[in-house]
């Protein structure tokens, strides 16, 4: 085996790129789940965002418009889920799964005429001076705008949830919607806003795949990234900063898997593909060993329908 | 006295129920006004209208002479109306400070808020650590959070729904001092309680609701508890019969029971010993969080202990779980009605099955006998006057008092040898409480034994033959309930040192 073909710096650069879409989607889903809503439609919103972004970029020639379109597309799709679960009180698990299937189908339909086209390229944004630093420069400071933006979102979500009143209200709604309602907070409104944010993040993550990471359109191209994002939220035990860790772990294994394959290493890809999920299970077991702590980690009202009956 | 809040003709119609029917009364400035009524009399709806959670169909309110029609609680809070809820509106995974911030309009910075919480809680003797998680607090401590949350907002009108149910007599005294202090500062208080003696000592006026209507007003100090209770229920309350206590053979023998608490903030049980004899009701008093929950878990079998620590009629059962204990006749009804004693989203029939399966033989080779189960549920409803639209309705649709009657009745109808009940009448209206207490004493009169854990001393005085206090996980030696004074008990409960009262 020749490992010298693996350039660690290049590997880290691809890792950052691979981690970005799942981190974006996971951060969005984390906010949604913190508000007490379980949206299993992340995969559907991602792929729909991917095609919206791709199509608009190709048609207008502007990747920026594409990015915005992807976020709008993800939001619209998430709001159908929001309408179903928050107003019609339909089951969140079933609605979320339906959203995934719907998103995959809709994206395939919209994307029919876009297969094989190359989208306009996305500008790289080297940060002056520090991007010239050895090792750290290429890994951290010579990416496209979305990578930096995903870190801004990460910091923003962390700050919002822990240090702002809005974040406190969001957590309160996810903890006990009845108590939050009794105090006069608008449970449904808070949750819809969280769902919309989750949709925008998932859409952005999807567009990152179709416009920057791959960049082309093929049906089903998100290939389970949405499900990985859902696993990351649990892996991170609903804490924003741990999402970064999870995204790197999951992204890293994807990268490693591709590289090892290229090197012709004698290890079944299946083992590598299952590794992140095994790690998630192990983390869950460790977390739930202290049952009291575990119950405090997950939002207590997660997945429960709210109806103001008083 | 000028009126702070005046209600006129408030009406609220719910499908099938007229919750409030032209309710009018006034609360003066700096007055403590009691609102009395059975569960379902419309108190909650009325209070929700004042707090902006529910909008009245008709009628109007005036606060300080101005029109007052809050459409949401934050408007009510802005106008100076604060409320302590009966079912605590707290968030378990958040800290005390965060919970308090959520109930305030313009909470100050975290650090300043923590300081203010500490100051206010110290002023009013309600010790609280702002950084603790609510999930780790006892019921009593949670209530302090609610009260402090209100006090921090300098309210003009403070609504208190059953505030004293989990406090010790000393704590109640402190609370009353607090309320009197607030009153002298000009704050009005709307006080809802089932404890008529409390209302007599604290309140200036009382309005009594029945079936959504005002049926009377009085000055509590001039009334007797009995006369107020009669206005409330509309019929005369049964006086508990003076029982003649003739203890029989030992049924339950607990010796050297110790249980380290699994909850980091819980209280470990330390070397608890007592016996229960036929015909005996043992009342166990104590402030919430002194080992009551742990004692309940140890006796019900949810926590296993040493084999010989619990002996029922010669059978050591300390090491077996709840089902095995039920089989031999040790039954338990825990404190938390929704979620522990009953599954909220399951029907009464299903809930009847959950504990009745073994003793009522409700299954045949693993298949549920639904007909018998339903009959059992109906028998409970019938025997204990549980008001419900039917046994196929979810447990959570019942009012607190009715569900409690169901939960207690479910155990009593299974003919226990020994029944353990924690907080049998917490948050239950006077009529339901009286019938639950009567059921307890009836069971004892039939030669069975009952262990009642309660924070309500009046209740313990009423039902108990023997009496003990649980403090910091240790239990005092049971003594006869006769002749003990509330002051003595209060000292035993509140003090860190429990005198070995073998009086």
Task: Briefly characterize the structure.
Chain A is mostly helical and 310 residues long.
Give a description of the structure.
The complex is a heterodimer of chains A (310) and B (503). Chain A has a single domain, classed as ABC transporter involved in vitamin B12 uptake, BtuC, CATH 1.10.3470. Chain A is 71% helix and 2% strand. Chain A has helices at residues 8-34, 42-60, 63-87, 92-110, 136-140, 145-163, 165-175, 177-182, 187-213, 225-235, 240-263, 269-288, 291-297; strands spanning 124-126, 142-144. A two-stranded antiparallel sheet of chain A has the order 1-2. The longest helix of chain A is centred in the N-terminal third of the chain and has 27 residues, at 8-34. Chain A is globular. Chain B is α/β, with parallel strands linked by helices. Chain B is 33% helix and 24% strand. Chain B contains 16 helices and 23 strands. Chain B has helices spanning 43-50, 73-78, 96-102, 110-123, 139-151, 169-184, 196-202, 225-233, 292-300, 322-328, 348-356, 370-383, 400-412, 430-445, 457-463, 486-494, and strands spanning 3-14, 17-28, 32-36, 58-63, 66-68, 81-84, 157-161, 188-192, 205-210, 213-218, 250-259, 269-277, 281-285, 310-312, 315-316, 330-333, 363-364, 367-368, 418-422, 449-453, 466-471, 474-475, 479-480. In chain B, strand 1 (3-14) and strand 2 (17-28) form a beta hairpin. In chain B, helix 12 (370-383) packs across helix 13 (400-412) and helix 13 runs parallel beside helix 14. The longest helix of chain B has 16 residues, at 169-184. The chains are: A mainly alpha (310), B alpha/beta (503). The A-B interface holds A 165, 168-169, 171-172, 175-176, 178-180, 182-185, 292, 295-297, 299-300, 310 and B 48, 52-54, 72-74, 76-77, 85, 88-94, 98, 101-103, 107, 133, 135, 263-264.
What structural class do helix, strand and pairing data of chain B support? alpha/beta
Largest sheet of chain A: 2 strands, antiparallel
Which term fits the overall shape of chain A?
A: globular
In CATH terms, the superfamily of the domain at 250-494 in chain B is P-loop containing nucleotide triphosphate hydrolases
Largest interface: A-B, 21 and 26 residues
- Estimated radius of gyration of chain A: 20 Å
């Amino acid at each position: 085996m020749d490992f010298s073909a693996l350039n660690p710096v290049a590997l880290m650069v691809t890792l950052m790129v691979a981690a970005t879409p799942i981190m974006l989607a996971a951060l969005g889903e984390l906010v949604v789940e913190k508000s007490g809503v379980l949206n299993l439609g992340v995969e559907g919103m991602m792929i729909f965002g991917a095609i919206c972004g791709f199509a608009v970029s190709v048609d207008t020639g502007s990747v920026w418009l594409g990015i915005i379109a992807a976020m709008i597309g993800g939001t619209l799709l998430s709001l159908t889920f929001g309408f179903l679960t928050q107003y019609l009180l339909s089951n969140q698990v079933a609605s979320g799964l339906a959203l995934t299937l719907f998103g995959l189908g809709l994206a395939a339909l919209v994307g029919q005429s876009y297969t094989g086209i190359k989208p306009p390229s996305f500008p790289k944004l080297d940060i002056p001076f520090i991007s010239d630093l050895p090792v750290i420069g290429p890994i951290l400071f010579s990416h496209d705008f979305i990578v930096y933006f995903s870190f801004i979102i990460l910091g923003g979500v962390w700050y919002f949830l822990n240090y702002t009143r809005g974040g406190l209200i969001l957590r309160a709604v996810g903890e006990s919607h009845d108590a939050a309602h009794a105090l006069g907070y608008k449970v449904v409104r808070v949750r819809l806003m969280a769902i919309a944010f989750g949709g925008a993040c998932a859409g952005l993550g999807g567009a990152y795949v179709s416009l920057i990471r791959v960049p082309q359109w093929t049906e089903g191209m998100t290939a389970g990234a949405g499900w990985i994002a859902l696993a990351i939220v649990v892996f991170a035990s609903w804490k924003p900063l741990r999402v970064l860790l999870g995204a790197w772990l999951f992204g890293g294994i994807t990268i490693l898997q591709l590289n090892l394959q290229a090197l012709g290493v004698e290890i079944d890809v299946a083992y590598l593909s299952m590794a992140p999920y095994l790690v998630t299970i192990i983390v869950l077991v460790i977390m739930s060993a202290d049952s009291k702590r575990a119950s405090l980690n997950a939002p207590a009202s997660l997945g429960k329908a709210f109806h103001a009956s008083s | 006295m000028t009126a702070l809040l005046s209600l006129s003709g408030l009406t609220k119609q719910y499908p099938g129920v007229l919750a409030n029917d032209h309710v009018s009364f006034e609360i003066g400035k700096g007055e403590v006004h009691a609102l009395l009524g059975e569960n379902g009399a419309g108190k909650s709806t009325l209070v929700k209208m004042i707090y902006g959670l529910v909008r009245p169909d008709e009628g109007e309110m005036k606060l300080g002479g101005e029109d007052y029609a809050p459409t949401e609680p934050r408007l009510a809070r802005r106008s100076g109306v604060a409320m302590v809820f009966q079912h605590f509106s707290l968030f378990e995974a958040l800290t005390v400070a965060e919970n308090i911030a959520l109930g305030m309009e313009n909470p100050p910075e975290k650090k300043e808020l923590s300081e203010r919480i500490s100051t206010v809680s110290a002023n009013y003797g309600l010790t609280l650590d702002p950084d603790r998680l609510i999930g780790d607090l006892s019921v009593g401590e949670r209530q302090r959070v609610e009260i402090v949350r209100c006090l921090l907002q300098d309210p003009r009108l403070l609504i208190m729904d059953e505030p004293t149910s989990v406090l010790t007599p000393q704590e109640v005294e402190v609370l009353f001092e607090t309320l009197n202090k607030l009153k002298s500062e000009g704050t009005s208080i709307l006080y809802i309680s089932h404890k008529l003696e409390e209302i007599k000592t604290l309140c200036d006026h009382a309005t009594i609701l029945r079936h959504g209507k005002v049926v009377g007003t009085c000055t509590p100090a001039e009334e007797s508890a009995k006369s107020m209770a009669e206005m409330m229920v509309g019929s005369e309350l049964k006086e508990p019969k003076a029982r003649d206590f003739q203890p029989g053979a030992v049924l339950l023998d607990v010796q050297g029971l110790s249980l380290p608490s699994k909850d980091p903030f819980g209280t470990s049980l330390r070397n608890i010993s007592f016996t229960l004899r036929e015909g005996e009701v043992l009342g166990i008093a104590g402030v919430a969080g002194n080992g009551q929950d742990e004692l309940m878990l140890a006796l019900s079998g949810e926590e296993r202990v040493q084999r010989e620590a619990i002996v029922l009629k010669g059978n050591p059962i300390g090491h077996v779980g709840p089902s095995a204990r039920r089989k031999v006749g040790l039954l338990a009804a825990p404190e938390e009605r929704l979620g522990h004693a009953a599954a909220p989203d399951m029907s009464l029939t299903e809930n009847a099955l959950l504990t009745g399966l073994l003793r009522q033989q409700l299954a045949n080779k693993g298949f549920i006998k639904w007909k018998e189960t339903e009959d059992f549920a109906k028998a409970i409803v019938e025997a204990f006057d549980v008001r419900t639209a039917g046994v196929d309705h979810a447990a959570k649709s019942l009012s607190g008092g009715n569900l409690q009657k169901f939960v207690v009745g479910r155990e009593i109808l299974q003919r226990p040898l020994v029944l353990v009940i924690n907080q049998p009448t917490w948050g239950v209206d006077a009529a339901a409480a009286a019938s639950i207490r009567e059921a307890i004493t009836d069971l004892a009169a039939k030669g069975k034994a009952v262990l009642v854990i309660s924070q309500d001393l009046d209740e313990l005085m009423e039902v108990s033959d023997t009496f003990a206090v649980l403090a910091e996980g240790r239990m005092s030696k049971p003594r006869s309930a006769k002749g003990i004074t509330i002051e003595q008990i209060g000292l035993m409960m509140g003090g860190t040192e429990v005198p070995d009262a073998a009086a």
